[in-house]
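DM from R.C. (forwarded with permission)

"hey, sorry to bug you on a friday — could you get me a structure for this? deadline for the figure draft is monday and I only need the backbone to look sensible"
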Amino acid sequence: MRALYIYNTASRNKERFEPLHDPVAMYCCGPTVYNYAHIGNLRTYIFEDILKRALVSLGYSVTHVVNVTDVGHLTSDADTGEDKMEKGAAREGKSVWEIASFFFGKFKENIHDLNIIEPDVWPKATEHISRMIEEIRELERRGFTYRTSDGIYFDTTKFHSYCDFARLDPANLRAGGRVEMGEKRAVTDFALWKFSPEDTRRQMEWESPWGIGFPGWHIECSAMSLAYLPQPIDIHCGGADHIRVHHTNEIAQAEAATGKQFVRYWAHGEFLVVDKGKMAKSGGNFVTLDALKESGMPALAFRMFCFTAHYRSPLTFSWEGVQAAAQSLENLRKIIPSSGCGESGDGKDAKAVLHAFYDAVYDDLNMPRALAALWEVVRDSSLSNTVKREAVRLADEILGLDLLSAPHHNEEVVTDQDGMKIKFDASTQLPSALRKKIVEKIRERRLARTGRDFQAADRIRNGFARLGITIRDLPDGTTECTVSQPVATGDENPEVLFKFE
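My reply, with the result:
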């Protein structure tokens, strides 16, 4: 029987994955919803999606939890600076709650575009404050906390294995290096609960046994993960930048509070690199998925681009690289046989011909090798079209590239009275009243975008999506409209159909 081997950050070794739980308990650090996710963030979610798909292909069921950080993530790992949510609200002139709702919606739109399977649970930090307070009180009872003028802190000197996970050298950790000291007793100590500033009223703050305030970022993940998953969690994923601080702190507080191992396997994805530095919102050097799409590149071209490097290796972003991935994806789709109808078959099993593909996937998610193996299959002249198409279908259950989706060759560009161009898939037959209503709604969305009312524009776009209509803004100003399912027929009333609110 095949098995998955995954590199475990905790041991620094590739290990055979042997979960304790059925279904597999899988937790992934989720978005802080104060801004758009950049494609560096999304690379991590793509690798996690491949991991989940690989587990499912091996016959495992998976309970997948991804948290939503909508409070408590400060701009510095030193427990200083502004709350990112409050900062985002000030930037947009909106409430924190509006910011959280909007950017969480955009994040979900991104993962849908990338064919990332949604988790089973999206726990939000603001909905689990009582759980966090309960964990902090347990840490307090066990003697792991102390109070300063600005919050309740975890005393890392009491947790003797604190440095083990990240291989930290305590002799070389000094104040002013990794973090600011303030009133902290040790440079590695971190906030569990922050007090609200006396002269400022925050939009998000709660009563607690220690005073009005809000949770630290790290306590959120340990509290929410253990609210939905058994301990020890089978596998915990995230970006490589979380190893030294966030995940080290998660382990310390969870194991100090429970006396049990927190996680068995840790998997981390490396950075998407821009000019030899990681892509990051804090540095201003980031690209969003919408920017890629608006340049005319399909979202799945970025997913394909991510498969050009192993998830544990840095990947250098370039527009040319994504364009090359888009071309490679198109070429792969073209070479796949369009049909196997009428063939007698060659007696070969599709899974068997994919042995090299599966070997690569189950060997620590080696996607460059897996793609090369799939190319070999579709180019193999000894295989029937029937076997090739079935092999592609099976491979795509892991790749998630929509390899068997037929491209839209028939297009019709219409221009309305205002000169607005809309490209329709000409193979879709729509009643004239519906087509007219689609044009009106696209014009309404374009006016909203021109007036920078992006919430209204996104509401219209999401309304289209619910009807099976995808709209995309092309660089030349044309709006592309693709209908993926029957919207309406006969005398159905478009006024009723297009009430999106």
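R.C.: lifesaver. Residues 39-57 form the longest helix (19 residues).
me: no worries. The longest strand covers residues 233-239.
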